[in-house]
Every structure is written in C-alpha cells, then in structure tokens.
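pinging the channel bc i need a second pair of eyes. not urgent but kinda urgent?? the chain im working w is below, pasted from the shared doc
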Amino acid sequence: RSGEMAKLTQLLDNDACRAYATYATIVLLKMMLMSLITAYFRITRKAFANPEDTASFGKGESAKKYLRTDPDVERVRRGHLNDLENIVPFLGIGLLYALSGPELSTALLHFRIFAGARIVHTLAYLLPLPQPGRGLSWAVGYAVTISMAYKVLKTTLYL
C-alpha cells in the first residue's frame, strides 16, 4: 500500500534482504575484528597514540618512548581505514539494492563476492600478500558496489 512503511517482518520475508543482512553482518564483524587486531598490535609492539595508554609502562619520560608509530600497527590501521571506506558504501547501496527486488541468485552473487573480496583484502594487508592481490581484491569489491548502485539507479530512477 502506498504511503505505508514496510514492517521489519516484511523485510525479513524478502530473501534478498535476508541475504543482505547475512553478508552485511559478516563484513561488519570482519571490520570490528580489525579494531581488535589493531589493539593487539599496539599492545604487543608497545606503540600507542595517547599518553594515557602508556600508563601501565611507567610515568613521565619512561612512558613517552611508547608514544610512537609502528609500521605493523599502521599497516593494520590502513586496512581498517580501507574497510571503513568500502564497507560503509556497501551497507547503504547494498540495502537499497536488496530493496530494489533483485533476483536472489544475483543478489547472493553480489553479496558473496563483496564479502569474499573484503576478506581477501584484509588477508592481503595483514600477511602481507604480494601485489596485485590487495589491489585486485579492492577493485573486485568496489566493482560489486558500483554494479549494485547501477542496478538501483536503473530500477528506481526518479531524476
């Protein structure tokens, strides 16, 4: 009916929306894991960004040596930042895509490829894998998001 908001239960009856919820949760959990990995690297490398974080390593000048950057910590942070730059657009565009009535098989293909590309991208950052692995995995995920955006615009264009 026109003018009525869809109920959450109606959205969950939509297979494409359920698929979206599944893969959005997977990539969000993966992104959250990057925060824990960053914390792990900060603690094990004793490389902190804030003075209060060094309190357990001493006071004053002795603690200041732990206020530093570390290449491993920065690498994990760059991977996490890349997640933010790519997963956030996926969340918005993927939801609109799921609501645009795609075929379930096509929606699953989009969501699975995106999630797989982001997982490979993270592994390529953390291990590190040689290029072009990281670049290709980024490009595949980005292309999937663009593909979904194109489908949304094609389906629902009201310009």
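so The radius of gyration is 20 Å. and DSSP finds six helices and no strands in the chain. — does that match what u expected or am i reading it wrong
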